[in-house]
Amino acid sequence: MKKYQRFISKLYIKNFLLIFISLELFFVGMDLLDNLKGVSSSANLQILYATNQLLYYVNFTLPLSLIFAMLLTVFTILKTNELVAMYALGISKKDVIKPIFVISSIVTFSYILLNFVPDFVYAYEKSKNIKRYNSPYTATKSLFLKSDDSYAYIETLHPVQKRGENLKIFIIKNYKLTEILEAKEAIFKDNYWSLQDVHSIKVLNSDINAKKQKLLFENFKSKEVFHGFKPKIINTLFQKRSKLTIQDGITAMIFLNSQNLNSDKIRANLYSMIFFPLFAPIIIYGLFFPLPAQRRGTNIALLNTIFISTILSIWGTLFAFTQMSENGAILAEIAIILPIIILAFSAWFVSKKYQMKHML
């Protein structure tokens, strides 16, 4: 790495950490002032609530910190005339932004990898449960769902413990009820739901026009049903703000598509974790080229305000599209992937336009 690249990298990392830690402390502090009274007086629960909120706010503060750190770095070397000195030595704008773009991309992809970790992804859900139920984990009541030719009612679902209570499963074949399974408990293991102490009622003659219906009553110690229908997938389908890790999101999307069920919410959740964070390095690359080369004749305060307003407007628009896609108002591909593609093309166009302008 060249000396000027090391200089820019160190300055950028220092500014990023300063802004990121400041934003994290600010948001968590404001949240605690507003919500800590509603949390149990238990010190363990309060610390757990603050920790989970700290992880949750990373979703907002990290991409913004990357962009704001770029502005702070560039304006710092602009004020000290170090930027114009670099250009005078023959260093191009592309070479100046390269270390910042690489670092921001590495941090962004590391953040995307964090969405494979359940403790990070479920941080908001845990803090919400601590506030409402004084526990990071809670059960979901009265669920009715479909898998293949079976319909199931689950009275209580414990997604973290991967356990369900008081289940009734109705098996349908050729639009006729053929069997009813009842179980007090079911445990998800080996990618199956294992019903415990099962009571089965089989309809041997499923013709409703028949004069007599023959029923067979049986009891089983255990029985496997619902292949691949993970507890967290079930819970997410019935919760407004519940999220899935990336690996569970992919599994859920494949499963729901195989069942011809709506996967809009799952796709929006998945795209928001994979594609939405990419806006940070894209904006860093695109907004750098219009920045002035020297301090003379430049109102830095006004320029800084304009750039910050632009960044927040872009982020707010993308975030609003993400929320609308999770609510099913807009297709996830149109609300999340398409704006990122347009943003990337715009950044590329701005950089090429600048390079062509200075080649003439």
Characterise this structure.
The protein has helices at residues 3-35, 43-79, 82-88, 93-114, 118-121, 123-133, 231-237, 246-258, 264-274, 279-288, 300-326, 332-359, and strands at 140-147, 150-158, 163-173, 176-189, 192-203, 215-225. The chain folds into 2 domains: 3-122 and 267-359, no CATH class; 138-229, no CATH class. It has 360 residues and is an alpha+beta fold. Strands 1-2-3-4-5-6 form a 6-stranded antiparallel beta sheet, covered by helices on one side. It is elongated.
Short characterization:
With 360 residues, the protein is of the alpha+beta class. It contains twelve helices and six strands.
Task: Throw out a few tags for this protein.
58% helix; elongated
Number of domain units:
2
Radius of gyration: 27 Å
Strand percentage lies at 15-25%
Q: Gap between N and C termini, in Å?
A: 30 Å
Instruction: Name the helix and strand elements from N-terminus to C-terminus, one letter apiece.
Output: HHHHHHEEEEEEHHHHHH
The general outline is: elongated
How does the helix and strand content classify structurally? Answer: alpha+beta
Provide the helix percentage: 55-70%
Low-confidence stretches: none
Number of helices: 12
Write down the overall mean pLDDT.
Answer: 85
The total of beta strands comes to 6
Spatial sequence of strands, sheet with the most strands? 1-2-3-4-5-6
Described by strand count, sense and barrel closure, the largest sheet is: 6 strands, antiparallel
